[in-house]
Amino acid sequence: MIATEDILLIVVAEASSIVRHGLVSVLEPLQTQIMVREVSTLPALEAALQHSQVSVAIVNPMLDTSMDINRLRQNHTNTHFVALISAVVSNRLTQAFEDCIGINDSPDDICCKLQHLLKSKPRRTPYVNNLSQREKEIAAHAISGMSNKEIARHLRLSVHTIITHRRNIYHKLKVHNTTELAVAALRCGIVSLTDLKG
Hints:
By secondary structure, the chain is α/β, with parallel strands linked by helices. The protein has 2 domains: 4-119, Rossmann fold (3-Layer(aba) Sandwich), CATH 3.40.50.2300; 128-197, Winged helix-like DNA-binding domain superfamily/Winged helix DNA-binding domain (Arc Repressor Mutant, subunit A). Helices cover 47% and strands 14% of the residues. The chain contains 10 helices and 5 strands. It has helices at residues 17-26, 42-51, 69-75, 91-94, 107-119, 133-143, 148-155, 159-173, 178-188, 193-197; strands at 8-13, 34-39, 54-59, 80-85, 99-102. α4 (91-94) links the parallel β4 (80-85) and β5. The radius of gyration is 20 Å and the shape is elongated. The termini are far apart.
C-alpha cells in the first residue's frame, strides 16, 4: 500500500471533456502512484497549481490565448509541464513545455513519458522576460556569429559594454557558451531556426 504523501498529483488542463476523460482512462495503470485532477480553463489550472502540490500539469497549449507557459513554469518550479496535443499547433506554442503527448500516442508511450518525468526534477527553462531588449539584440547577434567587436561596432557601443551584456545574458539564461546560448534562445523564441540558417 502506498502512503498518501507518496501519491503524486497530475492536473489535466483541456477544454474538451472527451479528451480529458480519455487521457484519465489512459492513466489508469498509474493510478496506484498518482491522483488525476481535471480542469477545463486557465483560471482553474492556475488555482490548481496555486493550491496543490502538482507534480505534472498536462496542458493543451491552446487552452487559452492569454496563457504564458513560461510564467507558469517560473512560478511553479516543482511542476513538470507537458503539452497535450490534440490538433496541429505551432512549435512556438510547445517549445516551453518539457515534453509533449498527443491524442494519437499509445497508452504505453504516454505512461512511459509520464513515469520518466515523475522520476526526474522539472527542467528549469531560461526565463526570457528577464532579458532587456538590448540583451536580446546582443544575444541574437552573438548567435549569428558576430564577435564582441563586431557587435559593438554594429550597435555603436563599447566592446566593454558588449562583454558586460554578454556576461549578464549568460548568467540570466544559465548558459556557459554560444552553443548553449543558441539552444536557450531557440527555446525562448529570441531567435528562430530561420535566423540561425540565414
